[in-house]
Amino acid sequence: MRPQTLETYVGQQHLIGEGAILRRMVDSGNLASIILWGPPGVGKTTLARIIAKRLERSFFTLSAINSGVKDVRDVIDKASKSAFFSPKSPILFIDEIHRFSKSQQDSLLAAVEEGIVILIGATTENPSFEVISPLLSRCQVYVLKALEHDDLIRLARMAIENDVVLKEKQIEIREEAALVRYSGGDARKLLNIIDLVYSAHSDDDIIVIDDKSISENLQQSPAFYDKNGEMHYDIISAFIKSIRGSDPDAAVYWLARMIEGGEDPKFIARRVLISAAEDIGLANPNALLIANQAFDAVNKVGWPEGRIILSEAVIYLATSPKSNSAYKAINDALSFVRQSGNLPVPLHLRNAPTKLMEQLNYGQNYLYPHDYEGHFVPQQYLPDQISYQRFWFPQPNPSEDKLAERVRNLWRNIKNY
Q: pTM for this one?
């Protein structure tokens, strides 16, 4: 069912539609080395083959899974020899190029730079992380998107009408929701689902594809979630930002995506713990306690019940007032320390475990706060050079208003709070 022309290619109209950037490059015949970055089953390999066919270029393929440096050099040697028969540089397609080691990618550089081959790489991972900079700088990166509802239904109907086996049967798509949902924007999954339903009902006079027939034949949703890849980082980012943005519905949705994808519960719980300190902070100190208890509870319980514990903690954090004053305070202090260096500790704050240190006035004139009313006495705690420096700036919320008022009363006429 692989399309053979741009006209029959489904999806990615932002790249190959009339007037789109990649379409203009192909139509001009001036093809540069490119990397196609997108999720599985969206047509990266198909697009590379169509481009080679349309431009009448020799087409060499390598898979990063089972190819070494020697294989790369052998293909480049063949491509170089093919120049005697055609003035057009051949296309070298490398599937899953993100799996190539640095040495394998290095072996491509000269051939790409000299135009011996036009490289088309396919990857599901962010190439800025997985492709070495010298090779990446010689390629244009194009992002392919997951196939949308209309794309998937068009592919399904094309399969039913054109496949040599399926067209011999009367197959009707009566409901589309489950077909689209379980496909997850992946053409391979779509065709596999149709094949599964066909195989289960091949003796029926009419094969009906609807929500019921699909659900009955699929044990679970084939959700796409790469725990070590780009999707992993994108979803955890959306999860944290939803908590920070006080949207409990979005936070629980992204939590569900991670759970359904088989994410490590400890990883999720750690991120919840960090969010409690970074984004809720002093606006609601109880958030950190609840997040910590959730972390411990999830470690004890595991899946599937751990989902309930995480959901409770996540909703609590998302609905809590927010403050990043503690986060900003430590970051500002770290930045200040890096710039100011190791300023000396005031003598009255130093410890004096030896007689010599006592003679050098270590610890002298230190005022013990518990000896004073209210367990407080004004004295200098910062190095002399920065005695009035501030790092914590309370933010306007009921919890920090109380803390700020207390500090303001204690340090009145000394520090400007």
A: 0.57
